Amino acid sequence: MTASAQTASAQTDFAHTKQLFHLPEGVIYLDGNSLGPLPLAAPIKMQTTMRDEWGEMLITGWNKAGWMAQPTRVGDRIARLIGAEDGHVVIGDTLSIKVYQALASALELNPDRKVILSDSGNFPTDLYMAEGLIKSLGQGHELRIVAPEEVEDAITEEVAVTLITEVDYRTGRLHDMKALTEKAHAVGALTIWDLAHSAGALPVDLAGVNADFAVGCTYKYLNGGPGAPAFIYVAPRHADKVEPALSGWLGHDAPFEFERSYRPGPGIERMRVGTPPVLALSALESALDIWDMTTMQAIREKSQALTALFIEEVETRCPMLTLASPRDAAKRGSQVSFRFPDGYAAMQALIARGVIGDFRAPDIMRFGFTPLYIDEGDVTRAAAILEEVMTTRAWDAPEYKARSRVT
């Protein structure tokens, strides 16, 4: 942890952090839960990396600029945001790859069980990766999917591993990580936590709850940029036992010995697969500098206040919308979702007026709240613009009903 992170007070100056992002004039950005905005320092950092490192050092940058150590160095910076031990988070590749790695490793650690337990609120890629892994293993594994509120009761002695996204991507519903992990361990199951909508949104305590594996992305709340690499956490008790299903060159114990057979590297190093995306990691590092100015508790307290204000404003102004998120702030992440039959068109009309959220099928209008760059004034203005869209039926226009590829 950096010195600035250690001294960051609970009373973060969010007015200052807001000035550290590029926010287009006239836009209220409530979609940082899907793609975080650009930190102003990121282009400068990338220019330095490209010109002074790639440009001047060429291939020697792997040693001179420390490129090869980036995945674990940046992993340690993310570790403090998710309550992980130093040296047990590595970054690189995509979230789908990291889900596959964690799931394959968990199944190998629990070979006598065949059930992978997930819930119907999980993000589809997690389920797709589980289906693909089951098919390729061909050992009779089962992906068992239950309703989110039924997960705890469904954790039985048949279960090898739970594959759960802590915050539901549609509604923001928050699972109880501690309780579910304890239940899993009590019956001999392992846990994988997907933190895609948790990392940077709310305090996470992986070490404290004794989690086994966790994965997450960095382009949402962590503001790493489109396609920014994902991370994986492996608990210390498993780190030297797991046998990576994706045995990439850089996960080898001595990659530059160029041995013909794979030997896993020590600890979290073995979960590396491909070449580090140096430029993307450099942009992410500039974003993480902002995180060193705050604490996750300060972020959580402010985001709960912002989401509560938005719910109050929208329900007062727009009775035709139905709250889809938990009303209790302690039971939701840092997003608020409302249901509306023509939610897609309504969101497009809203975006056309400078309030950017997003839509999730079949009828969810989704809004993310990040205190680093969203304040109370943004919330009340956004609610007022939403009221205008809804009460005038501005959404009921042909141009807002044509579906784009990305919703």
Strand and helix layout:
Layout: H1 3-7, H2 14-18, E1 21-22, E2 28-29, E3 38-39, H3 41-57, H4 61-64, H5 70-79, E4 89-91, H6 95-109, E5 115-119, H7 124-137, E6 142-146, H8 151-154, E7 159-165, H9 177-186, E8 190-194, H10 206-209, E9 213-216, E10 231-234, H11 236-239, H12 278-291, H13 296-317, E11 322-323, E12 335-339, H14 343-352, E13 355-356, E14 358-360, E15 364-368, H15 376-391
Parallel strand pairs: 2-13, 5-6, 5-7, 7-8, 8-9
Antiparallel strand pairs: 1-3, 4-10, 9-10, 11-12, 12-15, 14-15
Helix pairs in contact: 3-12, 5-12, 6-7, 13-15
Write a compact overview of the structure shown.
It is an enzyme of class 3 (hydrolase). This protein has 407 residues and is of the alpha/beta class.
What would your notes on this structure say?
- The protein has 407 residues and is an alpha/beta fold.
- The protein has two domains: 3-30 and 295-400, Aspartate Aminotransferase, domain 1 (Alpha-Beta Complex), CATH 3.90.1150.10; 46-291, Aspartate Aminotransferase, domain 2.
- Helices cover 38% and strands 14% of the residues.
- It contains 15 helices and 15 strands.
- It has helices spanning 3-7, 14-18, 41-57, 61-64, 70-79, 95-109, 124-137, 151-154, 177-186, 206-209, 236-239, 278-291, 296-317, 343-352, 376-391; strands spanning 21-22, 28-29, 38-39, 89-91, 115-119, 142-146, 159-165, 190-194, 213-216, 231-234, 322-323, 335-339, 355-356, 358-360, 364-368.
- A seven-stranded mixed β-sheet has the order 4-10-9-8-7-5-6, with helices on both faces. Strands 11-12-15-14 form a four-stranded antiparallel β-sheet, covered by helices on one side.
- Helix 3 (41-57) packs antiparallel against helix 12 (278-291), helix 5 packs parallel to helix 12 (278-291) and helix 13 runs parallel beside helix 15 (376-391).
- It is globular, with a radius of gyration of 22 Å.
- The model is unreliable at 1-9 (pLDDT under 50).
- It comes from Rhodalgimonas zhirmunskyi.
